[in-house]
């Protein structure tokens, strides 16, 4: 369920970044902040468990950032 939510969020950020690049930065930063909080909380686990628990949050944050950047880059390449 979490994977589907992250994919849906990435698609929404991508479309928003393509249609309104400046308006997409705030939701992108907000979602990255939420994933960062989850990562920080999960990394408190002892030993290698901390790294393992934090990895999905780090990957999700990175995916949201890449989808926003891709939408803005695609918008920049449009002729209008």
From TrEMBL:
Region (Disordered): 29-49, 61-80
Name listed for the protein in its UniProt record: Uncharacterized protein
InterPro entries: DUF6411
Any matching Pfam family: DUF6411
Species of provenance: Solirubrobacter pauli
Superkingdom field: Bacteria
Compositional bias of kind Low complexity: 61-70
């Amino acid at each position: 369920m979490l994977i589907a939510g992250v994919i849906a969020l990435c698609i929404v950020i991508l479309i928003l970044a393509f249609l309104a690049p400046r308006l997409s930065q705030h939701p992108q930063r907000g979602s990255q902040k939420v994933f960062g909080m989850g990562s920080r909380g999960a990394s408190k686990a002892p030993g290698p468990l901390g790294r393992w628990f934090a990895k999905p949050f780090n990957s999700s944050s990175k995916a949201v950032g890449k989808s926003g950047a891709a939408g803005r880059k695609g918008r920049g390449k449009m002729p209008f």
